[in-house]
Design a protein that fits this description.
Layout (H helix, E strand, L loop, with lengths): L1 E6 L2 E10 L2 E9 L13 E5 L5 H21 L5 E4 L15 H8 L5 E5 L3 E3 L1 H9 L8 E3 L1 E2 L21 E2 L5 E4 H13 L6 E2 L2 H10 L8 E2 L18 E3 L15 E6 L8 H7 L7 E6 L8 E3 L10 H12 L7 E6 L2 E3 L1 H8 L9 E3 L1 E4 L6 E4 L5 E4 H10 L10 H11 L5 E2 L13 H5 L5 E3 L6 H8 L4 H14 L1
Parallel strand pairs: 4-5, 4-6, 8-13, 15-16, 15-18, 16-17, 20-24
Antiparallel strand pairs: 1-2, 2-3, 6-11, 7-14, 8-11, 9-10, 12-21, 18-23, 19-25, 20-23, 21-22
């Protein structure tokens, strides 16, 4: 369905587009080129930060098709569109290892590499107009700017005197590198490999590498790169928008289909476990506390694995094996620390998008040694979600801890990497506290978890950020009756 009209030298083409179950109008403005400067569509290489899980594959393909449909309506050449998960590189999701390939393949005919997430919504004409304002011959780094309000552990307390001075991009809004900057980064990476073995907060670490201690470009804030919701009045000004809703693909997973394992130890029974019971334990149906000491008042289960000060690999593998041997074949296992705050009702909705028959390992993704053949893993503090099939394949592989105090999340990541099974990232899980993240970054999220009780009231954090709202409670009660 479309309408075309000419008014004051402007052709307005109104197209009704269906995308991801939402219907909205795109207004295409074909301005005279002597009035406005446009980037050429063929100058842009679109890179969708996709994942191999079937749910994410579908979303990435939908976004790719939407871009192609808009390009066809525009009547120009089809742009290059790359999906990160298809690039033959374990560390492709960390972006920087791809700079050499981008430089070699696209530096002659392209001007911009534009990155976006699966839920980023792109208005092609506005994007071309926006990029047309910038000098493509310069080394430019464009995006929606985020900053820390206070120095934070996930950024290694950098810029402690004034953390607001350093800007990094919100990937949800899309971000862009000019080809001259891509070529510079490719050359630098060839001569100067990445120094850190760990990838923790990718968007921050990329900005820090590009900044190069002040010798490289700062992030240039672009007002048209937005995380406004589609229904926001301000969205009309945006070249990009973002879907704010919690992913939800049907009926929430039943509580009886989610088993929750809480890792604890005797010294934390008195202070951390009461917090769990005051907050999110009531959302669960199947939950057990695993400790080095059996205490009936909680109750806790002694797995026979001595407590360790760090790592906890022996304990976690014992939990996984116990889950696999339970008589009831529960589809999902969630492993959390005793200082993790989590919304089970939101997790029920999120898991409706995943197939438990697939090997799924879900949470906040970190990386280790990805510049030199390392692996990705789900960081434990934010919660690790496993499908039963994933655990079955893990134990069939005989991959195990090399010591009880080895880092459990990293060993699990290494095992699944060896099996060729990717971990699945969700930015809704958080290894740190809410104040450790940019306010603008959290503003377009419906968070699933936070971690740590340092210098916060964890009960207050839970009820401010994670407690089910009225609708969630109604959904939970309906599915509780189904479980019963």
């Amino acid at each position: 369905m479309f309408l075309c009209t000419i008014c004051n030298g402007i052709l307005i083409h109104l197209t009704l587009i269906s995308f991801n179950y939402y219907y909205y109008y795109y207004y295409y403005y074909y301005y005279y080129y002597y009035l406005f400067s446009f980037a050429e569509l063929k100058e842009i290489v679109f890179v969708i930060q996709s994942q191999r899980n079937s749910f994410h594959l579908k979303k990435a393909e939908e976004l790719k098709q939407n871009i192609l449909n808009q390009a066809a309506d525009f009547g120009k050449e089809m742009p290059a569109i790359l999906l990160i998960h298809q690039m033959n590189n374990e560390g492709a999701w960390t972006i920087l290892p791809l700079m050499h390939e981008f430089s070699v393949t696209y530096s002659r005919n392209s001007s911009w590499i534009f990155f976006c997430e699966e839920d980023t919504r792109i208005h092609i004409i506005k994007l071309l107009k926006t990029l047309g304002r910038y000098d493509k011959s310069k080394e430019l780094f464009l995006g929606k700017a985020l900053h820390d309000d206070e120095s934070t552990i996930i950024h290694h307390y950098a810029f402690a005197e004034n953390p607001t001075v350093f800007k990094f991009p919100d990937f949800a809004a899309g971000w862009a590198l000019s080809i001259p900057l891509v070529k510079k980064l490719a050359k630098r990476l060839k001569n100067e490999p990445l120094k850190s073995d760990f990838t923790i907060d990718l968007k921050y670490e990329i900005a820090l590498y590009i900044w190069e201690k002040g010798n490289g470009p700062h992030l240039t804030p672009v007002p048209e790169f937005c995380t406004e919701d589609l229904d926001s009045p301000n969205a009309a000004l945006c070249a990009t928008t973002f879907l704010h809703l919690l992913p939800f693909c049907g009926d929430p997973v039943k509580k009886m289909d989610i088993f929750v394992a809480v890792k604890t130890c005797k010294k934390f029974h008195g202070d951390r476990i009461p917090i769990v019971k005051q907050t999110w334990e009531g959302e669960t149906t199947l939950i057990e506390y695993y400790s080095d000491f059996a205490e009936s008042s909680i109750p806790t289960v002694d797995l026979g694995v001595p407590n360790t000060e760090r790592g906890h690999c022996g304990k976690t593998f014992a939990i996984l094996e116990r889950f696999l041997n339970r008589p009831a074949a529960t589809p999902w296992l969630v492993v959390v620390d005793d200082d993790t705050l989590i919304s089970i009702s939101r997790l029920q909705k999120l898991l409706s998008c995943y197939e438990p028959s697939e090997p799924v390992i879900l949470g906040e993704r970190y990386g280790y040694g990805l510049g030199s053949g390392g692996y990705s893993y789900i960081t434990g503090g934010g919660g690790m979600v496993f499908s039963r099939e994933a655990i079955r394949r893990l134990f069939a592989s005989k991959c195990r801890c090399y010591s009880n105090d080895a880092p459990d999340d990293m060993v699990i990541g290494m095992c699944f990497s060896g099996l060729g099974i990717p971990v699945t990232h969700s930015p809704l899980f958080h290894q740190a506290r809410p104040m450790d993240y940019s306010k603008d970054y959290l503003s377009h999220q419906v968070p699933i978890s936070f971690h740590k009780h340092w210098n916060v009231d964890p009960v207050k954090v839970y009820f401010q950020w994670l407690s089910p709202n009225v609708r969630e409670l109604q959904d939970g009660n309906r599915h509780l009756r189904e479980d019963l």
